[in-house]
Structures are given as C-alpha cells and as structure tokens.
Amino acid sequence: xKLALIIIGAILLTIxxxxxxxxxxxxxxxxxxxxxxxxxxxxxGYQTFMSVYKPILFNQVxxxxxxxxxxxxxxxxxxxxxYKEVKGKYTNSYDSLINFIxxxxxxIVERRDTLVIDEELTRRFGGxxxxxxxxxxxxxxxxxxxxxxxxxxxxxxxMMNVPFAKEGTKFKLNAGEVGEDEDDKFPVFEAYVLKKDxxxxxxxxxxxxxxKAISVEEIKGDAVRVGSMEEVKVNGNWPKVYDPKS
Length: 246
Description:
Blueprint: H1 2-24, H2 30-87, H3 94-103, E1 105-117, H4 119-124, E2 131-144, H5 145-149, E3 172-178, E4 186-194, H6 195-198, H7 204-210, E5 223-228
Antiparallel strand pairs: 1-2, 3-4, 4-5
Helix pairs in contact: 1-2
C-alpha cells in the first residue's frame, strides 16, 4: 500500500513537471523532454497497477494450490482413520498405508442387546435366576477398504506427492501416541507440507507474509496440516472455504 501511494505521488509530480515544462521550456527541446516524462509516467503507472495486481494474482495461485493440497491431505486422513479402525493405531509409512488400502477389509457388524443369565448372581441369590444385559456383536460380512474409500480410483497411490511442489516432495507423515500414563495412551498422526514448498516459485516476500497469516479465513502457520502429534484430532488447519466437508 505504501509503495502504491509513493508511485501515485510520483505520477502526480511528473504530471506537474510536464505542465511546467510545457509552460516554461523552450519550444525546440520541449518535445523530447515531454516524451521522456510521458514514458516515465507510463512506467510509474504500470508499477502502480502491478503493486495492486500482484497480490491478487498471488492469492489466486495459493488458493488454487492449497485446494489441491488439501484434497490429498483429506485422502491421507481418511486412509489413516480406516487404518486405525482396523489396526488400532496409525502408521507413519505410506507403503503400509497403500498396502492396507489394497488388501485391508472392514468388518460389517451388527450390535444387539440381549439378556443373559448371570451364573454368579444366580448362585448368590440361592438359585433365583438373575439376568443381566449384554451387547452381542455379530460379524455379518467384510468389505474392501479400497472400494469403501476410493471406489475405482487409484489416486491413493500418489496421495503422498505434494501438488505444485518440486519433484519428489512428499507430505511429512508421522504417527505415535500421546498420554501421560502407559495405560492411558491414545494413537495420533499428522501429515503436513510447508507452505513455502507449495509456493516455491512465488515471490518470497508474499510467502513470508503468508506464513504469518492469522485471519480465520486463512490457513494459519507455515504449513498446511491435518492431524496432530500433540493432541487427539484428525481435522486440518484450513478454514471451511477450502474444505466444506471436513
């Protein structure tokens, strides 16, 4: 904004100089001086326009890229949640995750409550039949994890690759547990990529500013992230505008 004001001021000053030249400079050299000044005005005008337009272009680029990055992170998140449902924990290996997607199966179960005889209570009450409620889980069938999550798509095979980043850049994938006591541990995971990797070919000043984003409509911090290694959660750090279904 300051740069734009400075350039606008310079343009106005140049126009004033052109007027003064037109008024007081000898007629012989007036065309040359006037032409040079009008070229300078055009250049400053272009700089003013670009000072406003460049941030707009940057925002358009980052929003497009973030949207595709988030699509990949959602696939990783959904795959990890399925992995934990079957295995009881998360994984920090894409090979394990892909193998699970291709070969893993979900159990389709039916839960029903029923009354059963409690033999201990029955003996305690002198043979009076005593029943307690119990939940019975019946396994009805098994379904493919791949069919459930990805149908006929094979995009899970490349979900670790970061869109728009330099070739070979992958999302960082971590998994572990949190909890103070050994008997009170909870599985956690995170997957993330630094913003500077997604925007590596953009203006570094804009990237530095992007890393300081604090607005609720922006992705806070220096990375696009899903999950956490410090608390039990599987949501991402992006606002709803990027992923309304998450």
